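Annex B. Sample input.
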Amino acid sequence: MTAIAVTIAGSDPSGGAGIQADLKTFAALNVYGASIITALTAQNTHGVQGVHEIPPEFVEAQIESVFSDLAIGAVKIGMVGIAETAEMIAEGLDRYEQRNVVLDPVMVATSGDQLIDDDAIEAVRDLLFPRAMLVTPNLAEAAHLLETRIAESDEEMAAQAEALFDFGPQAVLIKGGHMVGQEEAVDVFYDGEEPARLGAELIATENTHGTGCTLSSAIAASLAHGFNLPRSVAHAKSYITEAIRHAEEIVVGSGHGPVHHFHAVWGYLPVLGVPAAKTLDEEGDDHE
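Annex B, continued. Sample output.
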């Protein structure tokens, strides 16, 4: 059966983040991607110049169109700019009994621009956190959700992950790649047991546009293939690390460029034809 995932998020016309990054990630990981757009943005590698919210009732219409027809294996949720849109998404997840939900509570762009209002933040926390298998805030988003200061150590990240877990998701992954003074890109995973520290090489690059979107959609892609949550997080961590490592192989824009979503494919492109990519299913027996 074809693995299908859907992204519910905002659009990035420059192609590095949001819906566009999610669909590229799905494609790179052998998943058919569908999309439900919550907002249109005017943005590029330098920042966000404008946001236009899609009317909530039209978001609902997109949800009906996609979920009533496609066999969705996983859902990634990104930018939800207004509270009414969060309500529509929550109702749609319930109506179509979606369980493999990865929520990336996008609040601030890599450039520092705020993308959603305070009412939407509360609605995302109260309505979408309890419906998520996993939430993936970065350091700033975790602090904002908890109304506290940004974590400065692995221990503080773990404490904040536990606090966010109390809002109802099955698991929390706090992304610590921007922590000052770290020698590794460290994330902390918490699912009600002992917090797990996930370290990877910290790669020095300015090309970090859309990293959070890419990581969360990579997790959703693995879930759509049938992998369990811990292995899906591990797959995604490896994928984003390599996408960042190869980011400078492409030249896009003059600001913070995107990661290289197709790093494993573009190097093998002949004039005609593309060799079959290795599927996640070849890697082992860790399906649920």
